[in-house]
């Protein structure tokens, strides 16, 4: 019996739990407890650019089945006035047309199950280098400054 308890305890050595994400506003200009970003570039003063074809926010607990998603941002060259697909749990839920000017966007989302991620599928991720604008090789799509999750 003691050996089993020791084995179980040893399995948890080094386990680090992130604090729970509290629904509300997420500033992309800094690291956010309980949220993992994938497909986003590094922090910048305004927030972050998506980098690649898919950007994902993964939460350490499930999202509500119904929630509002609000964000502030703008599209990079070639992505303005193109459909950005918003997925919850890997399933397409909405498409949005983003502009090149900074703007506020809001959509209501639902999921058939308790998903823990939101994805943005970028239609035409493009590097500033490929456009001759700079040496920046990141494949930019959307600049996000804030994102809000509002349970309904």
Characterization of the model:
By secondary structure, this protein is mainly beta. It has one domain: Jelly Rolls (Sandwich), CATH 2.60.120.430. Helix content is 7%, strand content 43%. It has one helix and ten strands, in the order αββββββββββ. Strands 1, 3, 5, 8 and 10 form a five-stranded antiparallel beta sheet that branches. A five-stranded antiparallel beta sheet has the order 2-4-9-6-7, with no helix packed on it. The protein is globular, with a radius of gyration of 18 Å. It starts with a helix and ends with a strand.
Brief overview:
The chain has one helix and ten strands, in the order αββββββββββ.
Tell me which CATH architecture applies here.
Sandwich
Our count of domains comes out at 1
The CATH topology comes to Jelly Rolls
* Total of DSSP H or I helical runs spanning 4+ residues: 1
Query: In the CATH hierarchy, what is the superfamily?
Result: Galactose-binding lectin
In the CATH hierarchy, what is the class? Mainly Beta
Q: pLDDT average, as an integer?
A: 84
Tally of DSSP β-strands: 10
Radius of gyration: 18 Å
Q: What is the oligomeric state here? A: single chain
N-to-C SSE string, H for helix and E for strand: HEEEEEEEEEE
Largest sheet: 5 strands, antiparallel
Instruction: Provide the helix percentage.
Output: under 10%
């Amino acid at each position: 019996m003691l050996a089993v308890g020791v084995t179980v305890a040893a399995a948890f050595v080094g386990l680090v739990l992130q604090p729970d994400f509290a629904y509300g506003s997420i500033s992309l200009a800094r690291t956010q407890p309980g949220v993992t970003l994938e497909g986003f570039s590094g922090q910048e003063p305004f927030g972050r650019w998506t980098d690649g074809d898919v950007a994902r926010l993964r939460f350490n607990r499930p999202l509500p089945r119904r929630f509002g998603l609000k964000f502030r941002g703008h599209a990079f060259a070639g992505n303005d006035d193109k459909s950005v697909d918003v997925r919850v749990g890997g399933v397409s839920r909405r498409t949005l047309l983003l502009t090149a000017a900074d703007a506020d966007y809001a959509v209501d989302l639902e999921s058939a199950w308790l998903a823990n991620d939101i994805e943005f599928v970028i239609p035409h991720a493009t590097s500033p280098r490929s456009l001759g604008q700079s040496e920046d090789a990141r494949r930019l799509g959307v600049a996000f400054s804030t994102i809000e999750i509002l349970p309904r």
